[in-house]
User: Fold these one by one.
Assistant:
Number 1:
Amino acid sequence: MPRNSRCTNRGSNQGFTYIGILLTVALLGTALAAVGASWSLSHRRALEQDLLYVGQAYRRAIESYYRTTPNGAHQYPRSLTDLIRDERGPKVARHLRALYVDPLTGNSDWKVITIPDGSIIGIASQSDKQPLKRANFGPWEVAFTDATCFCDWQFVYLPQLVNNSGSST
């Protein structure tokens, strides 16, 4: 009889250990899910910041191209590659060091914004995802407020905007 009682006690202790391990695994899973959600949100915010940086770099490059047109006849670029190799003057100008990829899509498939003659005045992302940032934009990005998709974030250079905002930064 002592043998049977030992087996019974040993089995019940193993049951409690098993439940304890299951509870620990469940708590760890919940904690990891919370960390994953937080990381995902941080990653999306970082991609938005990257898009704002890259978009402004393109906008400034288009502005530089427009302002440095020889003979004072302002022109916009006809292609994005004109921004990295501008051969209009006696010396090759580089308004961008390289063409950036869209941080949201990972491709160089920018939506190019043109005027009727085909000249490029800006770019926008092809992403149709909804941005997290919806307010508190800088002076060049005020139009991004309450945008429903990243494709509505259009980084455009128009001289009229410089005159209205008071600066070209």
Number 2:
Amino acid sequence: MLNRYSSLLILLLSAVFLIGFLTFTKPAGTNPEYNNPDTFIEAFRSGYNIFALQHPEQLHFAGERVPMEQFDVRERFDRELLVNTYWQSSTMLFFKRANRWFPVIEPILAEHGVPEDFKYLALIESGLMNVVSPAGATGFWQILRGTARDLGLEVNDHVDERYHVEKSTVAACKYLLDARERFGSWTMAAAAYNIGNSRLGRIIENQRVDDYYDLFLNEETARYMFRILAVKTIFSDPMASGFHFREEDLYPPITYYNVAVDTTISDLVEFAFSHNTTYKALRELNPWLRSYELPNASGRLYQVKIPVPEEDSTNPPSM
């Protein structure tokens, strides 16, 4: 009896395997007409197209003219425009995240007198994600630990304000304003943000020119401004670059209210529960919190964001 059932089981498994093999090895969308190589090639040529991209007649960054009449400037811009247009998934995510975070970043830039175009610098630095580079640069604005402290951000085992979007944006403004004062243009300030003030200063001294477009730079910094310009160009007219989306496709702003804290929180999990949320939600909204506690012997004032449940988002608690 066991051998009989074993034989039936083997036959059944073999049948399932054969059906699965035929199903998964059959090309999706098989069309008998494509058995003709000429028909297949014609269908491919008519249905799949990649176009060269039209450049804007004039290009500016932060009100400063880009010398598009220079062949190397045109070609560097063309490279970044192609890369960011045809890396569609990445750029679509840029649009989605920017809808949430640009409204946070833009007023801070305006308040500090930094041109709005610098929001694209944050976008190309991090994709508006709290990433950490191999060198340790962190957050939306990719700030190094030492630089963060120089700019007034708190960085320790419990708090890292490089992850605080508003505070790190203020810190980036301080850096950019100082770099513009030192190098004389917003374009050079952007380059200094990538390569560092000291290193850019040495390059200018060695090459005896102070215009970004005239400097011989390392690969990353040489591409830096053109990546910003390419993303700005795509954002200025998404459909012209083939990007189509509805308002509901974009990530909405997060609804929250602030809780002022000027004492130690010994247990952030319990703190979250006491405000009808979870530690996970608390950390996602306050990524600058880096542990399970918030020591505060000095009485420093922190604003902790508490998420509003979606069903209550039309009537959040008073801030």
Number 3:
Amino acid sequence: MKEIVLLDGATLGDDIDLSVLREQGHLTVWQGSSPDEIRARVREADVIVTNKCRLDEKTLAGAGKLRLICVAATGYDNIDVAWCRSRGIAVCNVVGYSTDSVAQLTAAMALDLVMHMPDFTAYVNDGRYTAGGVANRLFPAFHELRGKTWGIVGAGNIGHQVARVAEAFGCRVIVCRRRRDPDYETVSLEELCARSDILSLHVPLSAQTQGLIGRRELALMKPGAILINVSRGKVTDEAAVAEAFLAGKLGGLGVDVYSAEPFPSDHPFAALCGLPNVCLTPHMAWGAFEARQRCVADMAESIRAFFEGKTRSRVD
């Protein structure tokens, strides 16, 4: 029987049915694994399933039986794919499972930041509305999305779904991507930054995208623009983003991903916690219940296909 090891089950949540993975072999679930623990836990593994663990020569050198790694994500920058390829270890990711979930959080962040929802709900919840004697409160001023320009960096599955949501709100959509988009106006990154009222990031982390939004790009953005990052933390210069917000350059900031997760107390965004017009979430955009269940089912299918000699969802 195949030995399947899930190294960081806590990242998938304890409400997800893993029976489809158990159908593929003997499944051992660890809630989390340090590098030293990984080395010990994968020695007899035929298949590794992981979401966030870093897998490379240091952690996998003793995994003599290992044939397949399944990443519970679309991005696989935590896997040394080149090293795996050199050892004949297949790597599979999961594509498309979280499109609606990530697009939904992106839209929620945009609405939260445009509408200043925490200010208005706090006004009611702390009793000021009841005590105020006025039927409504209209400060801070909020604005309609209709007529605003929503810029999207990376127009893949998620980017296109965000574009459709933005259009439903009446926004003009522009995109920045490597190839011309058949559905939306395609512009350079510089033009996108200069024109966008809302700018959202939906690109994988690579050598080309690391630090994509830095001081130069932030300086190009409109005063008061909203920046949303639901891709990878290192796609932005986080220190520069924090500085831009604190200096009043950005009107709103929504971030779900960080260069270190969870981010430490000395991270640039630690100084932004609790500030108005900042929406920081704990890397949960991908994780709607339905999306996580789809992710697990897709990995089970990739394991089945691999041991039947078929090629499915391979990135190696």
Number 4:
Amino acid sequence: MNTIVIDSKRKFKLDFKEFWIYRELLYFFAWRDLKVRYKQTVLGVLWAILQPFVTMFVFTIFFGRVAGINSGDIPYPIFVYTGLLFWTFFSGSLSGISSSLLGGQNLIQKVYFPRLILPLSSTIVYFVDFLLATVIFAALMVYYGFVPTFLGIILVIPCLVITFLSFSGLGLMLAAINVKYRDVRYALPFFLQLLIFITPVIYPTSILGRYQWLWYLNPMSGVIETMRAGLLGTGAINWSLLGTSALIGIVLFFAGIIYFRRTEMFFADLI
């Protein structure tokens, strides 16, 4: 028989053994979110493919043709879709994590379980969406005749990890803040609308000229630029940009974990 000791003094420690004990709960939450997400929808999981595809189409018309943004030798549709693939994973997961505690408030008030399970389980839904959206990306690569480099394929995993660290850290902080201040639900969509325009999703980082150093402050810049260079051959991989993105992602992740652990003892009272 397993015994769980609830100690409010353990603010920064991650008990992986406790997570293993509650692994079935993580699976249950993730499966519940998957079913609820596409329940009573006509298209079902096709929405995971349609969202980035339609966004790519709109961006191609307005930014690729009307605004005339230069994507070099890469056709603009696949250029922007590469950015959207990772951006949609980032923004969707960030939104899901930030609202996860409010969505599970009845459970938080009634029973004990590692609170981190709720926000982390919500990311699985968006990872499934990411995998489905890669089907369109693969089709675009075949259509335009692109063959990913071996290095680019290897770097997909590190880029996914950096994306996960970034949205998890920022999301955990927002989820904890959202318990006390519900302004997050209104501010976050506005924040994400602005953030996509300061992330190289619809244009290359070279567009800023001597101000390219600004992209080093955004962890998604290194991810998107690395994937374009590795999978589409837009140029040499900027290792310093990727390394900076990894460092910022790690800092965000641990900052989010620390803040979440420091405030989780008050969730049941405030929520």
